[in-house]
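Table 4 source record.
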Amino acid sequence: MYSDYDDRAEKLGRYIADSNATVRGAAKKFGVSKSTVHSDVTKRLRKINPELFNEVRRVLDVNKEERHIRGGIATREKYKRETVASANKI
């Protein structure tokens, strides 16, 4: 658990910017909720480090543009696994 929220916001922002991570990925890595990550990197970071905020914003915008593609891929893989599993039962 972090006691310094601004420090956490900067660490989250740096992680997202450096690794092109999603909000969900950053939340899992740091052990916080997705809403905490989102509020830290959009509200806190904007005030404490505008330059890093702009880097993070670019990464999050790309992730937002691509999420429907990732969702489609995940759905295709899910049905592929289900088809293989049902074929093995026969």
